[in-house]
Write a structure and sequence with these properties.
Blueprint (H helix, E strand, L loop, with lengths): L1 E9 L2 E10 L5 H15 L9 H10 L1 E4 L12 E8 L2
Antiparallel strand pairs: 1-2, 1-4, 3-4
């Protein structure tokens, strides 16, 4: 089982969060992209751009933060954090 937690933060306060579960036999990369897309759809956000810093953080720690630099449109929060909390 693969689970990813998405959280919206503003001024050190959690605004919104959700967990996405994926039981498919797909690759980890596909699961991550699908989960991020589902989180963005549920939270009514544009899809963030993966910057080099996001890729490095995610590869090392299975978590990353998307700030204003990762979004094309203006955001009303400080950052979107994603974190893989379970994987087989």
């Amino acid at each position: 089982m693969f689970r990813m937690w998405g959280k919206l933060w503003k001024q050190n306060h959690l605004l919104s969060d959700m967990t996405v579960t994926d039981d498919s036999d797909d690759t980890r990369t596909h699961k991550v992209f699908r989960a991020l897309e589902e989180i963005c759809l549920d939270m009514d956000l544009g899809k963030p751009i993966w910057l080099d810093s996001n890729i490095r953080d995610f590869q090392r720690h299975s978590r990353t933060r998307f700030t204003q630099d990762s979004f094309i449109e203006q955001i009303e929060f400080d950052f979107l954090e994603i974190h893989v909390i379970e994987e087989d």
